[in-house]
Structures are given as C-alpha cells and as structure tokens.
Amino acid sequence: MTAPTTSELLLLWDQQRPRSRQRTLGWSDVGVCRRRAGYRMRGIEPTNPSASMQAVLGTAIHDAVAGAIEVVANGSYDTELEVTFAGVVGHLDRFHEPSGMLIDVKSTSSRWLEHVKMHGPDDAHKMQIAGYGAALVKAGRDVKRVRIDYIARDTGEEYNWPTVEGAPFSSVWVREALAWIAQVRDTDFDMLPRDFMPDSAFCRSCPFRDPCWDGYSEDRETFAVLFTENPDAGAWADELWQAREAKKQAAAAEKRAAGALEAIRPIGGTGRIVAGERTLDFRANGLYFVSNTTQPQPAVGYDETEST
User: Fold this and answer.
1) How confident is the model at residue 298 (pLDDT cuts 50, 70, 90)?
2) Predicted TM-score (pTM) of this structure
3) How confident is the model over 130-145, as a mean pLDDT?
4) Do residues 96 and 77 lie in contact, with contact meaning Cβ atoms separated by under 8 Å?
C-alpha cells in the first residue's frame, strides 16, 4: 500500500467539505454554466468528484483571510455568512458593517488576473456578489458598496475591482442574476446549453461531467457527443468551414492592423504609444496591449482559467 500524496489528501479533504457536498443551486453557480445549474435545480445527484487543486488553494486563501480578520479586525467584519435570496443559498466572504462594504474574494492564476484587469470580472462574479448584497439588504443590512478582491495564486498579486473603494451596490446586477436563474428554471433541461467545452478546467472538475457528456467513448473526442444530439454532418461541416474562414479573415485583419501601426513605432524600435483608448507596447518580438494597471499583455485571447 502506498501512502497518499499531498495533493490526493487535499483533494479528498476538499470533497468532504460542506460546500463540496452541496446539492442545491448556490450563488457561486449563478451565471456560470446553465447545464450545471439545471442539474442543481432539479436535484440530480452529482456523479463526479468536484474537487480541484485550484479550489483547494482558493479555500486555503479564504480560510487565511477569515483567520486574519478574527485576529486583527476587532469584530468590524461579518465573515463566512450563510445568506439566502430568491431561494438560492450562498456564503459571502465578508461584510464591513461600518462602511457598508461587501467584499468577495476570488483566487485565480496570474494570467487570468491580467484578463480581469483588462476586461473586468466575469458576469458570474458580479451576479454572485449581487446575490449576496440582495440577501443582506433583505435582512435589513445597509449595503452601500461592493468590491471583488482578486488574488493570484502563483504570484500573490492582488487586484481590487473596480478599485479599493469598490463600486455602488447595483440592483441591475441583481435583476440580471434573477433573469439568468429564471431562464435556467423555465428552459427544458435537454435544451440547456453547455457553456464550457469538455476539455476545459471547468468541465474537468464538474460534478456532473459524466451525465452531461454521456455517450463519449475513449477512442473519440468527447466533443463527438455533440453529434449525437444533432446528427447533421452537413451542418457541422458548414460550421467548421465558416469557423476556419473566420479564423483566416481574423488573422488577415490582425496582420493588416499590426502592419499599419508600424507607422507609429517609436524611434529606436521599442516603447509605448497611446492609440485612442488603448496603449500599445512595441517590442522587438511583437506588438502588445497594455492595460491601465498591468504589465504589457499580448494582443491575443487568453486560455480559460478557473477562478475560485
């Protein structure tokens, strides 16, 4: 018998936590994947272990924050509160009563953190904190502002969205969250889309992966399940053709725009130039975009990375 590795022990521990064993829709599910939310709403029993090392590290950060608040914050925060709004349960990270500030903490990779800085949080994150805020307001608490603190697991960098002062609590996000929940609830289950691809980090750690992608075989890509739901080879061939044509056109447009911008490359070949609402960083190895608060980032898409 071989002793379990550290990661195996941590994953087993994470699978036993109350949140990991949750069976009903939670606020952390809202705005994410409609198919997974559909499983939750219908009370379907999970089939797959849902733990991931990213989630374990995220839990460790949350626990450390809660411990730090207990030691140094002199009781000015409520932490890890269980709240309910519109029948959906959630566990908010902390609420600062004196300022009326609701704060949610998200751990992520440094690469995805750069994406958040440039493009803002996922809608799901805004819906989640809106649900917490609405629950507090319903309970008679005075929620004035909200903030999401993103912490990169690999570098320790923190980014406060939108700023350290937060943003006014908005009922718009609450309405968007309720509309999303209603859409999932009112849609026939078989018509609920999968909002992530089977090779994504989200799908790999989903507690409903097997039934969601039921029908795949080891000798074929999991994506082949999509064909069983729509066995129209011509339609799929057309979609592939159009996607490849769009890719060619996008590559040509990228080359054209980057080439035109060579006209404003700084003397010496490298440096930053403001172009409209964007800042460009000319380097010897390519042209990059610069966010308002970060180091230069390539002008390309980002790999999907889980935030917890």
Assistant:
1) very low
2) 0.79
3) 96
4) yes
What do you get for the CA distance between the two ends of the chain, in Å?
A: 33
Lowest mean pLDDT of 30-34, 65-69, 288-292, name the range.
Answer: 288-292
Taking the C-alpha atoms of residue 161 and residue 146, their distance in angstroms, rounded to an integer, is 9
Q: Is 201 exposed, middle or buried (0-12, 13-18, 19+ CB in 10 A)?
A: middle
- DSSP readout, the chain? -PPPPHHHHHHHHHHTSTTTT--S-BTTTTTS-HHHHHHHHTTPPP-S----HHHHHHHHHHHHHHHHHHHHSTT-EEEEEEEEETTEEEEEEEEETTTTEEEEEEEE-HHHHHHHHHH---HHHHHHHHHHHHHHHHTT----EEEEEEEETTT--EEEES-TT-EE--HHHHHHHHHHHHHHHHS-GGGPPP-S-TTSHHHHT-TTHHHHTTT--TTS-GGGHHHHHS--HHHHHHHHHHHHHHHHHHHHHHHHHHHHHGGGPPTTS-EEEEETTEEEEEETTEEEEE-SSSS-EESS--------
* Distances 253 to 179, 259, 291, 306 between C-alpha atoms, Å: 37, 10, 22, 30
201-239 pLDDT, tens digit each: 888 889 899 899 886 666 777 888 888 888 999 999 999
Look at residue 94 in the predicted model and tell me its pLDDT. 93
